[in-house]
Amino acid sequence: MTTSRASGRGAGDGLLRHRDFRLLLAGAAASQAGTQVALVALPLVAVVGLRASAFEVGLLTAAETAAFLLIGLPAGAWVDRVRRLPLLIRTDVVRAVAMGSVPLAALCHVLTMAQLYAVAFVTGVATVFFDVAHQSYLPRVLPGPRLVAGNGALETARSAAQVAGPGLGGGIVQLLGPPVAVLANAAGYLASALFLRGIRVREPEPEAAAGGSLGAQVKEGLAFVLRHPVLRMIALTTGVANFFSAMLVAVQTVFLTRELGLPPGVLGLMLSASAVGGLAGALCAGPVARRLGQARIIWLAPVATGPFALLWPLSGHGAAAGWFALGSGAVFFGAVVYNVAQVSFRQLLCPDALLGRMNATLRFMVWGTMPLGALAGGAVAEAAGSRAAVWVCAAGFLLVPLPLLLSPLRKLRDLPAEAVPTAADEAASGPAPEAADAPGAAV
Predict the structure, then answer these.
(1) Rounded average pLDDT over 381-390
(2) If we measure between CA atoms, which residue out of 182, 35, 56 comes closest to residue 107?
(3) How many angstroms separate the first and last alpha carbons of the chain?
(4) How much of the chain exceeds pLDDT 70, in percent?
(5) What is the DSSP string of 122-140?
(6) How confident is the model over 12-25, as pLDDT tens digits?
(7) Widest CA span of the chain, in angstroms?
């Protein structure tokens, strides 16, 4: 039995009139809101509650992202073997239980850094499966021509959570303490699971791959990405960006609290103000793609906004702390525009049976750099101070667009219907897989 990837609604219908997408969007919003609260609260549990060092905070960030490096590839093959919606619900519940253990342990006065590392790692493992399944499930809910709009709406929800969540988290931390704020993260995951349970789109049971072992399926996903010249450059660019982003996340709480002297409430507001740029990017991604071309904005966005990262280490006490928010806002704007364009392209390019493995391969490549970046950030901050670590992060963002500028994308306005491999690619791997029409023109 086969089904279409999406319902038969036309491309002209409003996204919010699409019931299943509305529930998917609500679940994403609830989950992201809780996650953004925890972005402030969990490091503050370590820094304020447990007096953790800069390296210990970096290790906490590394524990949360290590799963993408350790199980990212087999996770994609496994996701392609199961129905994705039940998996999304189960991973939300696992994350809720893990996060809920933090305030319970704090209440019993038994909370330790070891537990925080364990919670971060378990949450990270569940997030690997959730994120791969979520990106692979969206094309089941929405028809192809509407994926850019759908991804834009999901990025809008995520960016709105980034605006509201840290400020809310900082306020809760200042009033009730960091462990109580972590409870909001658990509540967000539970709300997400409830919304997802209401989705009516039914997936068929995936067909077993003929003679395909888990290892063979992992190799198939790797080959799909590595043989495609555009996907290779996207993977390299995003991996570099995520390495330096993880460095920043690992040290920003220490930098803002100990170097700039910001209290938790102001720290949360600072991160919320930074996220306004991401919200603006989500709202602008579709119109910018139509005006400039989807291929062009994939490389133009990081080129135009990356240099604003230099404002991070230039920030200081008092009003000068605002430079951090301004730099982050500009970088977030470019990152969201870039993400909407390249994720939509990937979803249109890839056959449904390979979506999980393709997304997992990309996640392994681009998120697998994050634990390494987090450890590097903690080590640099421990050895030379948090401001020195932030300088390294800022300099790194200047390198992010280089792979794209050396790729065929630089000469294109829109993504081609078929990616043309180089002669070396053809000799080594055969012809590149066929791509879908440029989604930027179909919004």
Answers:
(1) 93
(2) 182
(3) 30
(4) 85
(5) HHHHHHHHHHHHHHHHHHH
(6) 347 777 888 899 98
(7) 64
Number of H helices, E strands in the chain: 17, 0
Residue owning tokens 């960006």: 241
- Which string of DSSP letters, residue by residue, matches 411-440? G-SS--SBPPPPHHHHHHH-SPPBPPP-GG
Top mean-pLDDT range of 176-190, 244-258, 273-287, 339-353? 244-258
Amino acid present at 193: A
**Lowest model confidence (mean pLDDT) among 69-83, 173-187, 211-225, 294-308:** 211-225
CA distance 248 to 374: 8
Of the two residues 421 and 270, the one the predictor is more confident about is: 270
Q: 7 φ, ψ to 5°?
A: -70, 170
User: Among 185-194, 209-218, 250-259, 395-404, which is the least confidently predicted range?
Assistant: 209-218
Q: Are 81 and 105 in contact (CB under 8 A)?
A: no
Phi/psi of residue 421, nearest 5 degrees: -75, 160
* pLDDT surpassing 90 at residue 331: yes
* Maximum mean pLDDT: which of 219-228, 374-383, 424-433: 374-383
Residue 6 DSSP SS3: coil
The answer to whether 82 and 222 are in contact (CB under 8 A) is: no
> Is residue 398 over pLDDT 50?
yes
Q: Which residues contact 160 (CB under 8 A, 6 or more apart)?
A: 29, 279
Q: Which two tokens stand for residue 354?
A: 């390979």
Contacts of 103 (CB under 8 A, 6+ apart): 179, 180, 182, 183
d(Cα 11, Cα 262) in Å, to the nearest integer?
Answer: 47
What is residue 207's predicted lDDT score, i.e. its pLDDT?
A: 64
- What is the full DSSP assignment across 240-265? HHHHHHHHHHHHHHHIIIIIS---HH
Measured CA to CA, the distance from residue 400 to residue 245 in angstroms comes to 11
Under the phi-then-psi rule, with left for phi > 0, alpha for psi from -120 to 50, and beta for the rest, what region is 261?
left
Distance CA 118, CA 120 (A): 5
| Of 391, 441, 397, 396, the residue nearest 417 (C-alpha) | 441
Calculate the CA 226 to chain-centre distance.
21
Q: Which residues pair with 418 in a beta bridge?
A: 434
Burial of 67 from C-beta contacts in 10 A (0-12 / 13-18 / 19+): buried
- The burial class, CB within 10 Å (0-12 / 13-18 / 19+), for 205 is exposed
